[in-house]
Amino acid sequence: MGAYILRRLLLVIPTLFGIMLINFALTQFVPGGPIEQIIAEINGEGGITDRISGGSGDAGISNGDVEYQGARGLPADYIAELEAQFGLDKPPLERFMTMMWNYVQFDFGESYRRSISVVDLVFEKMPVSISLGLWSTLIAYMISLPLGIRKAVKDGSRFDTWTSAIIIVAYAIPGFLFAVLLMVLFAGGSYLQIFPARGLTSSNFDELSLIGKVLDYFWHIALPVTATTIASFATLTLLTKNSFLDEIRKQYVMTARAKGLSEKQVLYGHVFRNAMLIVIAGFPGLFLSVFFSGSLIIETIFSLDGMGLLAFEAAVGRDYPVVFGTLFFFGLVGLVVGILSDLMYVFVDPRIDFESRNT
């Protein structure tokens, strides 16, 4: 197992390098840049969301010899100073290699727009995204595992039919649409005012007791976590059901029943470990997918200042230290989580031996 883990860890280096190289190359062809964003703001050409395409009108940027058409009236020395400040006065290859060398040392630089280190910025936003990802994943497992097992045991029954209908509807509803529905129904939109409509905590959070802080925290995350859980819960339930059905139909289950074991002994003594292999081993990947995907719209709807909103604003504002710093960090985390998923397989079922594989 040690040799397999070592091979996987060594593969992380070229994989991560390739991810960074491709994304860095793509940004060289994207209109706009951090300097143009500053120029557009100086010229009063709208906010960040008005320049998603990299500027409008005369605020263009050409490749090769950088020519800022929107910089009319700005001294050339000022433009050159900005280029030197952001490191854009160097060739792309040199900038990329310098960036990667800094990242290897976990030096992610500072945000262009906020003059704060990327690490501090990520740590500032991460609690929101971790709250959504962790609680959504845990709740999805708490609901999906017993429900999926029950559906497998009652396959073809009325219970299986009507729960499948609910699951299909839940899966078909986009998370952001469900979030809006929750806002309208329970957050003072048009009906009830039960849950707060914004933020992760109340304004008087620091003044509350420990129990009060815990209750206030869960009160605020109830709706966004519910909206985030809806799709993952449906997928995980069907995965659990199908996994158990596959195991129940195997020969060893028939043998166990022939020996006179009860259905509970067969189900939880023999089927459970094999059926849960793919479900439990997929926990790290599921958490990561919930952590990354769908958070932008949910965070925007509920006014949660998390990683999704940070990534969007950084991409639109061409805040490259934040864009590439977070890409490197979470790319590394994603690759490591892939290795952890394999280790989870071995933990759940020690019979699995990755050493015998040639990959």
From TrEMBL:
Domain ABC transmembrane type-1 span(s) in chain numbering: 126-345
Subcellular location per the Swiss-Prot or TrEMBL entry: Cell inner membrane; Cell membrane
Alphabetical keyword list: Cell inner membrane, Cell membrane, Membrane, Transmembrane, Transmembrane helix, Transport
Any one annotated GO CC term: plasma membrane
Keyword Transmembrane helix (UniProt): yes
Main location: membrane
Record-annotated membrane-spanning stretches: 9-26, 128-149, 161-186, 217-240, 275-302, 322-348
Pfam families: BPD_transp_1 (PF00528)
Any one GO biological process: microcin transport
Bilayer topology: Multi-pass membrane protein
Gene3D superfamilies in the record: MetI-like (1.10.3720.10)
Cross-referenced SUPFAM superfamilies: MetI-like (SSF161098)
Family of the protein in this entry: Belongs to the binding-protein-dependent transport system permease family.
Protein name, per record: Microcin C transport system permease protein
Organism expressing this protein natively: Pontivivens marinum
